[in-house]
Amino acid sequence: MTTSERYRRASDVRYRILDGEAVVVRQRAAEVLGLDAAGSRILDLLDGERPLANVAATLAEEYEGDRETIAREVEAFVAELAAAGVVEPVEEGE
Amino acid sequence: MSEHSARIERFWRDNQLFSALVELTYRCNLDCFFCYNDVGLAGTPLAFERYGELLEEMARLGVLHLTLSGGEPLAHPDFFRIGARARELGYVVRVKSNGHALRGALARRLRDEVDPYLIEVSLHGAVAATHDRQTRVPGSFERLLANLEGLRELGLRFQINSTLTAWNEAEFEGMYAIADRFAVRLQIDPEVTPRDDGSREPLSIAASREGLRRLFEFEAERSRTYAASQGGGAAREPAIVRQGDSIAPPSPRANGSGKFCGAGSSNVCIDPYGNVYPCVQWRRPVGNLHESTLAEIWATSRGLADVRELERQIARRLAGEESSLLGFCPGQAEIVTGDAAAIYPAAVVRRELLREVNRESAKRALLPVIRG
After folding, report:
1. ipTM of this complex prediction, to 2 decimal places
2. For residues B93 and B87, what is the distance between their CA atoms, to the nearest angstrom?
3. What is the model's pTM?
4. How many CB atoms lie within 10 A of CB B251?
5. CATH numbers and ranges of domains, chain A
């Protein structure tokens, strides 16, 4: 995973952010996941347009903390979301 | 309790709207004898533009689960425009359909344009004579089975809904066999309900006590068999493969929300004329979308405030009543007895039968398993 990569929510993912927490449904798996406030914000930003560096920079403006640490945590979290089938990478040229 | 069940209970407690059932039309291409819709209801149907506003408003309010129902929702002239807009707005869409029109190009459009999480279709018997007697449309049974095959080939997720009646109570094993053939869930409602206009005509085909007992025994046996096949785990059949929390809301019973269920607290129902109800089964109008926005109704309706208070009273009243066995529904109670908190006869029968079945199940669980 590199900071220039872009990710988008999988096509079967539906979600709402309620009281800062995302309720995420993966339709194909009939599965519900909950994300905390920071996770919800990241999911919301993964629109397939923004590179991960941009997502991390936005988080760094909104949350206190070292920018490099936040960038590493964003990458790790996006990797988790991808492994869970919630997001998927956008191919070059898409 | 799962994390999601705890979340739903918070929604009930905090009046966080999360699920909506929208009846788009009462038109239908079948003519079911026990249909509960009030087809004589008068009013001005909601226009497509109003549905567009409503979908945007409900998304802002936090509604994630949207059920498009009817009548037959596919009979609404704007069904696909409404469904596609719901998809764009990120709803988990369910479609409650009789399945009669779900084939060919229309089924493909449903998959490609609406992408529903689930289609709930209705089955009324295990053979054509019984199903067609209910729908009053010859050939509807064979057509439904062919359509289900088509849905499966298209990769559309569906489940089968049914209601136990005097006409089909000798056939539920066959109905389960049909569901098993498609590897989908069959949900049988054991109670026929009066129509929404109060007519009790449908009750004339309510299942017999013996038919109910046989159904409960059969379902208990299926649960035992499934639990055994899973190494004694959860005694519940999988609807669809589940890896995380189930999408299904918690069963109505005493819970941390202080309310009996989510009617009017987390769920809402809207009829084709904009009337708003706490739930599809609790037909007490609490506002109309021709006069107010849903947000205004949700925040200020005195009718909804009454419903929420009733929910608290019912939770307290049924706390020691084995309410999960009663299968109690406040809407059903109100239409049958006039009192949403009154335990109605069908619920008492259900509790008695389930107690007996559970006692028998407990005895069998103590017997040694003999393997041939």
Report:
1. 0.92
2. 7
3. 0.92
4. 11
5. 6-84 (3.90.930)
